[in-house]
Design a protein that fits this description.
It is built from 5 helices and 13 strands. It is α+β, with helices and mostly antiparallel strands and 332 residues long. The longest helix is centred in the middle third of the chain and has 17 residues.
Length: 332
């Protein structure tokens, strides 16, 4: 019987970039504490919260191409508070088995499911199943926490947030109303927003049920959020992009919760000229679900194993290798 180790999601190249990203984060305001700034009052719905902020901003700042704030370059995550929202006595990553589930945050059915997940992690030393292992999108709000390279492109009419994981491209439509043409939800939902000076406020709805991150609770199809994005510049000239966010979910949360996420310039990646490339895992994923719902992996030589550096469906034609750099005769 095979006893394959369940590994975190990620292709080799992604792990290399993640390692480089972790190196660049060192020494850049690591000791500057992230502080959650909750909204000025409690709102029953995310729509009421967003409408209040829009009113406080006088309908929003009407930026032009010349005045809209810019957050150029590559970015890596730089800390967050979301794990401590759900776990007490917690140190490290949510993917680790430590910490105790905080009660009274989640509704009873979602709290029970979360308790069962953390129990599994304590007993097994891992989470047996994660959506990303078989090529499902991270989705939102996990989008905010994924440890991969990002770009932010701000325009007067839209703000684009690009994540190289699964090529997730999030668009925040400035000064517009929500539209659901297809009558269903999506991985990233529908996001609209406005500028309040140099702060970007966003409202996201119509999101598929996902999770906050591996090892954290599930969300429901009624999950919504209000975000406040702001660039912080410190005395030493370093920068940190912060987003204060309030999450709403009538099915999973007893009341709205607040968190802050941060991003730091990926200086090492920029110095070596790294670029966000298109990639997918359908042609290279060797994961599968066992009968008991556990994620397992096919190993080289096993039937059905996919070689990410293999050939296309037309191997009889020259130039069909997926790995031309290391093709015979091209190594040098």
């Amino acid at each position: 019987m095979k006893n394959h180790k369940i590994l975190p999601f990620g292709l080799g190249a992604c792990l290399i970039l993640l390692f480089a990203s972790s190196i660049q984060a060192q020494g850049s305001n690591e000791n500057e504490e992230l502080v959650v700034v909750p909204p000025p009052m409690r709102f029953e719905t995310s729509s009421a919260h967003y409408a209040y902020l829009l009113d406080q901003a006088g309908g929003g700042t009407q930026h032009t191409v010349a005045t809209v704030p810019q957050w150029p370059g590559l970015w890596d995550r730089g800390g967050n508070t979301i794990s401590k929202t759900f776990l007490d006595d917690f140190v490290g990553s949510s993917t680790q088995e430590g910490g105790r589930v905080r009660t009274g945050i989640l509704t009873p059915p979602y709290e029970q499911t979360f308790q069962e997940l953390r129990q599994e992690m304590r007993e097994e030393g891992q989470q047996k199943y994660d959506r990303l292992t078989h090529c499902e999108s991270p989705g939102y709000p996990r989008f905010l926490l994924e440890p991969y390279t990002r770009e932010f492109i701000n325009l007067p009419h839209q703000s684009w947030q690009l994540n190289d994981l699964m090529n997730e491209n999030r668009r925040i439509y400035i000064g517009q109303e929500h539209i659901n043409v297809y009558g269903t939800h999506s991985w990233l939902g529908d996001s609209v927003g406005f500028w309040d000076g140099d702060r970007l406020i966003a409202h996201t709805v119509d999101i598929l049920p996902v999770d906050y991150f591996r090892g954290l609770p599930l969300t429901s199809n009624q999950f919504e959020s209000v975000e406040v994005w702001e660039m912080k510049i410190f005395e030493d000239g370093s920068q940190r992009l912060e987003v204060q966010v309030t999450f709403y979910d009538e099915h999973s949360l007893i009341e709205p919760i607040h968190a802050v996420y941060a991003y730091k310039p990926a200086t090492v990646l920029m110095e070596i000229g790294s670029r966000i490339r298109q990639w997918e895992c359908e042609t290279s994923s060797n994961s599968y679900l066992t009968a008991d719902g556990e994620t397992n992996f096919l190993l080289p030589g096993e039937p059905g194993y996919k070689d990410a550096r293999g050939a296309t469906l037309f191997p009889h034609l020259p130039g069909q290798s997926r790995d031309p750099v290391y093709e015979t005769g091209l190594e040098n």
